[in-house]
Amino acid sequence: MFAALITGRNRVEMVEFPDPVPADKGVVVDIALCGICGTDIHAYQSGQPYNPAICGHEWAGTVSAVGRDVKNLSEGDRVVVAIAPSCGKCPACRAGQADRCLVSFMSALGRDPLAPPHGGFASRIAVAAERVVHTNPALSDEQAAQVEPTTVAFHAVRKSGLRLGDVAVVQGAGPIGLGTMQWVRAAGAGVVVVIEPNAQRRSLALELGAHHAVEPGQPADALVKELTHGLGADIVYECVGRPFAVQSAVDLARRGGAMCLIGLADENASIVPATWLIKEIAVTSALAYTNEEFDMAMGMIADGRFRTEPLHSSTIGLSDLDAALADLASGSSAQTKVLVDPRL
Known about the structure:
The chain is of the alpha/beta class and 344 residues long. The protein has helices at 38-46, 91-94, 102-108, 141-144, 147-159, 175-186, 199-207, 218-227, 243-252, 273-279, 291-302, 321-329; strands spanning 2-8, 11-16, 26-35, 58-66, 78-81, 124-128, 132-134, 167-171, 191-195, 212-214, 233-238, 253-261, 282-285, 312-316, 337-340.
């Protein structure tokens, strides 16, 4: 069996692996679709070491083999990959901080004991049974393959402290930014502004419910000032994942406002500490999600409160992964969420 791995800057290799077999507490999943994540794109751009277990971590499929100690899953079950639930035994769990469980955290990083030697850019994968969740039967495979990034955005908005009626700004209209924007609307923001240089993505933001979509720089600064009578946004969500965007998020916020850091920059960011201090900015950040939130987000996709269909721009085979990553890394791609079907 072959799996695609990002092995260096602008380099994707097809690496051969033995056919996976389930561990006693594991399962093998035949992958239907796997989404390309922003972290995959950053790894492709930078060439920095990239854990192969998370090279393709937004997948959905069907269980094809079950370990002897697994009782809650059967062959033929449709499943989606998630992080492991809280263990109840680690120091964080014993301190009453189950949402900071070390076992869950390591599974999110692909460093749990049963982490596979490759990610979801493959036809099959063996993982711990606790890493998969039954797919809501109302979801298509295309929807199921987008539950993981949808839940990342859900978690970020849920912990950001957004209040009813807030003026909220979302920096970046990639899959995470557009997901964040939808959750911000659902959570009751009064005005939602999306900042994005790509015209197609600005149009998509408006289609999905943003009140305004504007180019970065002076147009965005002027619009936020106009909408807030010169005060600045109540909260800014940073979803670009580039160093410059961290400070720009704070610049757009009002005094006493907030910034939520979601995008993961692969280099250090320069900031102006005086601005943060003078504005008394409240900062939250979000990495991954909790197991509970996964089911919550999946349910809201199923009942139509969150729309994944407009985010899905194309489906490709494994042989086209290199070209798709190069396109997405270019900064001028017309694609939004690209799904990889290993059967093509």
